[in-house]
Amino acid sequence: METKIWAVNEIEQAAKAIKRGSLVAFPTETVYGLGADAFNEQAVGKVYAAKGRPSDNPLIVHVADAEQVEKYAMVDARAKKVMDAFWPGPLTIILPVVRGAISHTVTGGLETVASRMPDNDVTRTLIRMADTPIVGPSANTSGKPSPTTAQHVYHDLHGKIAGILDDGATTIGVESTVIDLSVAQPAVLRPGKITPEQLEAVLGEPVDSEVHQVAASEAPKAPGMKYRHYAPDKDVYMVAREDWTQAIIWAQGQLAPVGLMLPNDLIVEHQLAGMNFVWSLGNDDAEAAAKLFAGLRYFDDRDDIATILVAELAHTSANAAYNNRLGKSSSGQKFNVTDFM
Ligand code: TXA
Ligand code: MG
């Protein structure tokens, strides 16, 4: 199958493809998603096949308005509060399913379902035109960094999906915060741009924010968190801010070039501007999040690079999403002076 790239004035073609049960990648403010009609079980099945995704890892249902959620999930006052405060936006809400209202292929057989209203006009128009909510995991091959451009999606999925709606690079660059509101105490299952503190302020009650790292054998709360993730086929190491001087000395002593992903102030300080083994993470932490996955993909596609060193950010709640994704990409490996020098 030839994969089309549609411009934002070609939403109607994308909507038609969704309606006939085909797969369409769509833009959001976080990462590109891989869309299918949430009420067409066969179409949803194709999503798992195209990504190579394990079938016990449930999908997020994307909606264009909050009322759509009530067709398949139990929306209580608490859920309405966070929807009002954060939708459209980078927040995915887990709620109990309305029994029989949505297929097990979407929920991975759980009694709960994830929903999100993306902050992207093109995609909300697509959902309205297709006249159905659409499921949307990140539009990458399972295990690879999530796509932040249409070209990333094309790289992973061309020939496997009908088309891609191209709305340029996403702005946030890491996936949405996932909050579980199906339980007594709200819990963040995946960190994202919206922090536990912001959620607590709206909910007026404590939010559990420990992201539990689960072993592959356990039944995790967010099934997606147990798999190796966001990982290029390279050796990735996190570098703490105070270790960059040593890390650069180590990198420059290697025979093959080592990919370096670091913020502009460190690039300037170490006189690395313009070097072809350097990927800039920009001028602040938000930019770093927006550029993380693209950098990992850039080095993943370079045959001359076997190792990538990536800046860890200060451990604040706003940086939790970035550090969490980097932790997974690197399988937790850290550059440290004693082992490397
Ligand atoms: O920003 C995002 O959320 C992007 C864009 C495309 O919207 N989507 C995304 O989807 O990241 P995906 O499938 O890559 O990640 C969904 C996460 C997985 O960790 C999955 O296990 C979890 O949400 N999840 C989905 N349904 C769930 C449920 N019922 N209970 C617990 N976790 C759930
Ligand atoms: Mg994903």
UniProtKB/TrEMBL annotation:
Signal peptide: none
Keywords in alphabetical order: ATP-binding, Cytoplasm, Nucleotide-binding, Nucleotidyltransferase, Transferase, tRNA processing
Catalytic activity: L-threonine + hydrogencarbonate + ATP = L-threonylcarbamoyladenylate + diphosphate + H2O
Main location: cytoplasm
SUPFAM superfamilies xref list: YrdC/RibB
InterPro entries assigned: DHBP_synth_RibB-like_a/b_dom, Sua5-like_dom, Sua5/YwlC_C, Sua5_C, T(6)A37_SUA5, TC-AMP_synthase_SUA5
Biological process terms in GO annotation: regulation of translational fidelity; tRNA processing
Leading EC class: transferase
Superkingdom of origin organism: Bacteria
EC number: 2.7.7.87
Pfam family for this entry, one: Sua5_yciO_yrdC
GO cellular component: cytoplasm
MF terms (GO), sorted A to Z: ATP binding; double-stranded RNA binding; L-threonylcarbamoyladenylate synthase; tRNA binding
Cellular compartments annotated: Cytoplasm
Described function: Required for the formation of a threonylcarbamoyl group on adenosine at position 37 (t(6)A37) in tRNAs that read codons beginning with adenine.
Protein family (similarity comment): Belongs to the SUA5 family.
Protein name, UniProt field: Threonylcarbamoyl-AMP synthase
UniProt organism field: Weissella soli
